[in-house]
Amino acid sequence: MAPEWQWAEIGSVLRKKVRRSLLTADEAQGVWDDFLRLPIEAVGGRALASRAWDVARLFDLPTLYDAAMLACVDVASAPDGTAREFWTADAELVRRLGSDRPASVRVLGGR
Prior knowledge:
The protein is mostly helical. It folds into two domains: 2-37, no CATH class; 44-107, no CATH class. It contains five helices and four strands. The protein has helices at residues 6-19, 25-37, 46-59, 64-75, 91-97, and strands at residues 2-3, 42-43, 86-88, 105-107. Helix 1 (6-19) runs antiparallel to helix 2 and helix 3 (46-59) packs across helix 4. It starts with a strand and ends with a strand.
């Protein structure tokens, strides 16, 4: 699951990588196509906005983008009642969350 605008975030990251020559246009297109096929549940509304604001304040995050991603874990429960996890490779976000980061945050690469 992700905020309903996740497509814009993913697309913006891919476009930046193409402009910086970190990905070719064809590679970015392939990743974009793969992304569009993922079974991602879109989450939105006032509950997400409110929780994102609280998360941004709690961790002193500069934008609501990352806070909204984190807030998805809090506003929607898993169908079988198991805990949701937030996976990220964003080292800066993990650094900002510090040692008090939520237990739901998992770091790609294992840090």
